[in-house]
Design goal:
This protein has three helices and three strands, in the order αββααβ. The protein is an alpha+beta fold. It has a three-stranded antiparallel β-sheet with strand order 1-2-3, with helices on one face. The longest helix is centred in the middle third of the chain and has 19 residues. The termini are far apart. The relative contact order is 0.17. This is Saccharopine dehydrogenase-like C-terminal domain-containing protein. One of its GO terms (biological process) is lysine biosynthetic process via aminoadipic acid. Keywords: Amino-acid biosynthesis, Lysine biosynthesis, Oxidoreductase.
């Protein structure tokens, strides 16, 4: 019964928003506040934003392993430029990207 109440109505879509905020002190002593915001809407009667934001990065990472773009074995976090940069570019080509601002 609860499952029925939690379903989307016909034509309804969801929204996922994520924001990271950093206060950065540069080498010259200047301080900036940087924000990185992700906003994604689901497709009415299609994939939810959450499904897209989980599935697309996973699919891209698998394709990178199969194509030899990622050669390191094991479980990897995208913290190095060698992994992060190609993933970011591929995600942006799929319409998934962050809006960066300096406040």
């Amino acid at each position: 019964m609860l499952e029925d109440l939690m379903q989307y109505e016909q034509g309804e879509r969801n929204l996922v928003m994520l924001q990271h905020k950093f206060i950065v002190e540069w080498a010259d002593g200047k301080e900036d506040t940087l924000t990185f915001t992700l906003e994604s809407y689901g497709i009415p009667d299609g994939f939810s934003a959450m499904a897209t934001l989980v599935g697309v990065p996973c699919g891209i990472a698998v394709q990178f392993v199969l194509d030899g773009v990622i050669k390191t074995p094991g479980v990897l976090a995208p913290y190095t430029k060698e992994i992060c940069e190609p993933l970011r570019i591929a995600l942006e080509s799929e319409g998934i990207g962050m809006i960066e601002k300096v406040l």
